[in-house]
Write a structure and sequence with these properties.
Blueprint (H helix, E strand, L loop, with lengths): L3 H8 L1 H21 L13 E7 L5 H16 L5 E9 L2 E8 L5 H15 L11 E4 L8 E6 L7 H14 L4 E7 L4 E7 L1 H6 L4 H10 L2 E10 L2 E9 L4 H5 L2 E3 L2 E2 H4 E7 L5 E4 L2 E10 L5 H16 L8 E7 H31 L2 H8 L1 H15 L6 H11 L4 H15 L4 H25 L1 H6 L4 H36 L9 H19 L1 H17 L1 H4 L12 E7 L6 H22 L1 E8 L5 E8 L7 H11 L8 E6 L2 H4 L5 E8 L2 H15 L5 E6 L6 E8 L1 H6 L4 H12 L2 E8 L2 E9 L7 H5 L2 E4 L2 E4 L4 E8 L3 E4 L2 E10 L5 H12 L9 E4 L1 H32 L3 H7 L1 H16 L5 H30 L4 H32 L3 E2 L2 E2 L1 H46 L2
Parallel strand pairs: 7-24
Antiparallel strand pairs: 1-3, 1-4, 2-3, 2-28, 5-14, 5-15, 6-14, 7-12, 8-9, 10-11, 13-14, 13-17, 16-18, 16-19, 17-18, 20-29, 20-30, 21-29, 22-27, 23-24, 25-26, 28-29, 31-32
Helix pairs in contact: 1-16, 1-18, 2-13, 3-4, 5-10, 10-11, 11-12, 11-14, 11-34, 12-18, 13-18, 14-18, 15-16, 15-18, 15-34, 16-18, 16-30, 16-33, 19-34, 19-35, 30-31, 30-33, 31-33, 31-35, 32-33, 32-35, 33-34, 33-35, 34-35
Length: 1020
Amino acid sequence: MRHWLPTFAIDRPVTVLMSFLALLVLGAIAWQRIPLQMMPSGFNPSVIWVNIPFSGASPRETDEQVVRPVEARLGTLSGLEELSSRSSESGARFTVSFYASRDINEAYAEVVDRVERALLDLPDEVDRYWIYKYNPDDTPIVWAGLTLPETLSDPAHLMEQVVRPRLERLPGVASLDVWGVERRSVYVDYDRARVEAGRVSLGEVHLRLSRDNFQGAAGRIHTQGQVRSLRSLARFPDVETLRLLPIGGDRVLADVAEVALRPDDGRSINRINGQQAAAIAVMKESSANTAAVSEAVLGVLSELEADPRLQGARFHVLFNQGALIEDSVDTLGMTALTGGAFALVVLFSFLREWRMTLLIALAIPFSMLITVGTLYFRGDSLNLLSLMGLMLAVGMVVDNAIVVVETIQRKRSEGASPREAAIQGTAEVDLAIVLSTLTTMVVFLPIILMSENATLSFFLKVLGYPVIFALGASLLVALVFAPLATRSLGASEPPQPGFIQRGLTEAYGHTIGWLLSHRVDGLLILALMGALTVALPLSHVGQTDTVEGNLNDFVIRFRVPPQADDAGRDHIVRSFEASIDAHATEWGVRVYRSSLDDGSDHGRIYVYLGEDSALSRDEVMEAAKRALPSDLPGVRARIGWGQRGGSGGGGNAIQITLHGEETATLDALSEEVIRRLETRPGILSASSDYEVSGVNELRLHLRREEAQARGLSAAEVGRTVAMALRGANLNPLVLGDREVPVVARFREADRQDLESLSAFSIQTAAGEVPLRAVTEVSYGKGPSRIYRTDHQTSLTISADLQEDLELDEGMEEVALALEGMQLPRGYSWENGDRFSKVQEDNEALVLALLLSVAFVFLLMGGLFESFLLPLAIITTIPMAGLGAFWGLYLTGTSLDTMGGVGLVILVGVVVNNGIVLIDLVTQLRARGVPRDQALVEAGRQRLRPILMTALTTIFGLVPMAMGTASFIGIPYAPLGRIVISGLATSTVLTLLFVPFLYALLDDLRTGAAAWARFVLWRTP
């Protein structure tokens, strides 16, 4: 049975070669066509967002009238993990998080049902909502800024009519988001004195403007035997026609209002390198090649810069996902090639014959191409995670071929013919290599099936499939192609082992013999190694979930005084920009972007450093902190890490969340928390990213008795105030090939202060009533936003940590900072999402490790048909753990997410050597060889293949462990270091102590059997 596969390969060489050739051709085609992406598609996190517009209301009104009723409905959702909300002047936004086991599509339908029910309890003004489910394809592949010279007359029109169509026509581009560009509208600014003097009814004017400026379908008409659609067109052709519109009597609109086309009002600031700018985000189609689409987008941006219609506008690429992918692919490719070259050197050093070395090395391209072909026909992409899986497999795919070829070569050196050596050598090790391959594959099973951490499960599944496919392909190569190739390509006389190999083999045999005869000493050595590992590495190796990224940027966060006017806000931003310009060359600044939204007191400046910067990012951040302007009253600035949405960066930051009921109390507590946090040495800065600090409010209270006595309702008073301040949106004008919004309102001089507002008149049947007669004014401070988490008001504070500060150290700094802080009754603080996520990841990782060990044990027991052999082999796992933590300790590496992945992979890799060794022991004992002699002989025969497989894997991972290859800022080095140190240690300990422990277990089994027979024999 064990001979049929190599026999078939040798007897049907043409069939085997044609089959392999077909697989390679398919793999080569797949390599050319497989999509190249940064992130794997198909991941849908268990989060749904609900947005309910409620404009014109204060955050407190939104919280009371919208958030609370909707919370009550959403709180009944099944599988709900967390419900958070944000109330603002524009409406309410909910984030609904579900447990990973909840089907997100069913959850989506249930959310729609709950929101529909809640609409009955909401104000009449709430008539629509949006529900959004995350899609990775919505992530922009290119962020770019466009500086806009002042010579451009209408930049918004150019963006919509020139830039957007040109980019959206590109193959693979799905959509384009544009914001920050200055837009123009037609403003009808009423003069209140003229309106009141002429007793003009603005309601009638607005009705006239709507009646005389419209277009719409008017039905169908039959003419000349045909049916044609009829449209009524009554658009104003230009602004002058609108200005001369009659409004009653002999008056026209221009008599009571100034009508002009001009830039929109607002205080939003969006600049790049100090110039007015727009921002562009390009999204791709789900099946498109990210790198190719990004390159095409950059090409179009270069062409648009030369377009005369843009008149000197310049594009600045802030984030390019395609370039990140290409850099990572190049780094991974070079790492894989270097690792493969190291593996070849190791093979030739042991085999000392170039044809056998090349034969084994062919397993690498064969396995890689078959793997890529499998991924392609499965519909998968080649992304950074799957590429990392391929890189991991480079040093592992030659293991099976090494064991087969080495055994065949030994058979030939013993005098067997090439045919007999190929068949017998393959048959001797086929069970061992099948079992060792399956144990490596099976460790990914608990990760793939693990549902408690959907994110970790999904991404490790994407990483694991290429490893599984590559190992399966390498097994096929070893059992089918290698026997055929050794018969045809093998040397007539295999070279004999060199002096060093023979001496090492003899020394190893004597060492095993010594351990078998000195069992107490062996147990003491194992106990001593375990105690040293617990005392040093396990106690000193830190844990973190963040690492130094390869995205070279940082952000300056600043807060402007709420009372600052447009000029003051602009002066503050210009001051920060001037400090950057003054040090741009010294810091190596490539580009920077300033952002301060209208109605917000919190601004940011994203600074992007060049690759050739003479200073490190940490050094630049320290220098920038010293260079920040200090002569701006009421302005507070901090420097921290960039945020993904704004800059494409990341960073080492932690969050804490304050809980309570009153937003004002939380605001006061947050100021004290921030002050305490910034006194700690490991914390760069702290800030509240949620802008709950509040804004000064002017509150207009209705005196209901006075209003009722004058025949006024609250709605009429509200409409008057809204008209005075916000105005009304009318039907747009069509000017040429574009629609221009029309906004009617009172001029700024009539609404710029409280006295002007109070003088507004309200028309009643009895005449005009001034607004001051039915209202009274008070002053206060209201929140600009209100946040709630699980039905409780909350506030999140973010603290930027030093780059080398680990998570547990950061949490210790937070605890020390808040030690002794007295919180009012009903208020509390807790660690943020990052800390809880790390705890979840740790629990998931421990579960994955335990399940991996269990699956490996069960698999070996089933194939070996033994309880003893798996127990002897499974001891290699704790041996590998000793080496893994020593490797982290000696290299000063923290255990992060990639390191955790390495531990799981290590479980399946390190048992391979034990399987190969114990399998031969079993065969020798079956032939009648005494146990201790079989252990020594098996060790001598398997020493060379075990060292070859271990060293090829180790040297194949050296570039990963030593280099800077990374996955969007997360380096692979910890993974490589853990696998290398764990495999190196387990290889040595496997060769020495697995035979030793096998003998101990065998003696225990024999003793237990003898004791059982004695007991049963004595039982009457």
